[in-house]
Amino acid sequence: MTERLVSHLRYAALAVPNFEVERDFFVRHWGLTEVRAEDGLSYLAAEGSTEPFILRLRKDDKRVDLAGFGVRSRADVDALAAKLHAEDVQFIHEPQELDGFSGGYGFRVFDGDGRALEFSTGYQTREARKIREREPIPAKLSHMVFNSQDLNKTAQWYVDHLDFTISDSLVRPDGTDMMHFMRCNPNHHSIAVAMGPHHSLHHLSFEMRGIEEWMRGAGKILRSGARMIWGPGRHNAGDNTFAYFLDPAGNTIEYTTELSMVDDENWVAHKHDISQLSTQDQWGTAQEMSELVARESFNDIDKGLFVAPPV
């Protein structure tokens, strides 16, 4: 089994101008729990996860603040920092005791496109509970997907520096790469990179307890007035269900479940032709993918690249 220094995706941090509206949506409708509130800052947890929070919202101009990743130990944090220094990765700050909510020990860097990444360990966890049958709330954060103007260059940065592995790819009929699904543990993907017109957030995905909870959750969000932009359906790559919505800030967010688990020793990456309807939706229940659907997830240009978030 491949030993990686990065163990898992912990959280996503977003800055949004409509902070109060966004926070209300994620708590009242999406099903997250606010565990800490500060002036213009909200930390939101998933009831089924031991992570202290899986989403952080901050009041500011719209941007991706951080993608937070877990590391198993302080020794691994130091080893990863040393590796990235040797590879001339740009640091935001060195390994240190973290003074933000939940604490821990870690460091931050910019990826090759300028997204801020945090790697941490030793933070305070919370007690998770079992999600009840038919309870339509997220159990955990599943994955985070970025748009990139240079898909292969962005994906290769995560392969070279963080030892992520490409599990599967989406390609055009002529073989042009359109999306890479990337793993750092047995989950089929913790991040993915999609070809887009600019660097931005493509979507955040939240794992539900099961199919019943996923469908009930999708209905709940529809009744909230949010617009479903694609779904419900079941992808081929990752074999997970999907229902994509727009949040009040215009970010694409997903309810999913049953993401595949893969074995590093035996898994063979596939290239799925996006012109085949079964590539996008095995069930055929979702509308056909089109430019009109795809552009909803292009999002606004991320103006926070190579600018460290203030918290």
TrEMBL record:
Among SUPFAM superfamilies, the record links this protein to: Glyoxalase/Bleomycin resistance protein/Dihydroxybiphenyl dioxygenase (SSF54593)
Task: Enumerate the spans annotated as VOC domain.
Answer: 8-122, 140-258
Q: PROSITE patterns from the entry?
A: VOC
Instruction: Please state what the protein is called.
Output: VOC family protein
Q: What is the lineage of its organism?
A: Bacteria, Bacillati, Actinomycetota, Actinomycetes, Micrococcales
